# Entry
Amino acid sequence: MRATPGSPHRGIWEAQVTAGDTTSRAEDLLADRAAVLYGPFTTPQLLRLDEALRLADQSTDLVFSVYVGELDDPVRGHAEKLHSQLADPDRSVLVCVSPNQRALEIVTGTEARKRVQDRDCKLAALSMAASFSGGDLAGGIVSGLAQLADHARRG
Amino acid sequence: MGRPPPRAVGGVTCSATVNAVSVLETVLFFVAIPAAVVALVFGLVYMGGTRPGKRYRPGRPFEFTPVWFLSAPERLSGASGVDGHAALTGPRHAELPAGTVGENNSAGDTGVAAQGDLGGASDRW
# Structure
């Protein structure tokens, strides 16, 4: 699951994001990539997540990303701040999951919003929250991404 | 069938084909061996270390490092020609600038929709 150059699974990329600051140094990323393996996801789940993200990006022209961690209050504001830190926020869809706060936020950019409408997001959010309440983080994220990508393809 | 008569060993009558077993042997057989098997199973179970639950359970604290999953960093960076290593290390600074705050971050913790052009949805579980 390491994102090594040339490997088929180099696509997935993880970064540690602290509350008000974003660490982005290369050595931090390497350490974080190792830390992800000790995260809440097993290796098969990480592979499924990787596949879901890759399929969602390839089948649509949007950029999907998933953040799993603590969100500051207000969670919506923090999620939008994270979204604005992406390379191309207009075409990005960010899914923020905060298990401690039991909060889920989906943020779509200007262009992405035309493809994935808010009611589609709400529908995906409902399905994801149902999975999360059963304790299935990875499954909820994967199915939610699939739903969002499906709507983006048709929208 | 001329079976030999039972012999008496140590005051205990036993057959010619079955040897007498002592109390110590009985204890070893019926207690020590099961105990060894149980210990083996316990050892196998806890061999991988007792790291606290890897999975998320609703209601339990979630004490993992925050992670941000992105797919295809070379597409994100906008430079499609870069190799994987450069895509993983180089353009990160441009993509995730520290402390930058978008102008659309003042929406409250309301349900669907936000102010400005951002869309999306919120939910809780």
Observations:
- The beta strands of chain A are 13-15, 63-68, 92-98, 103-108.
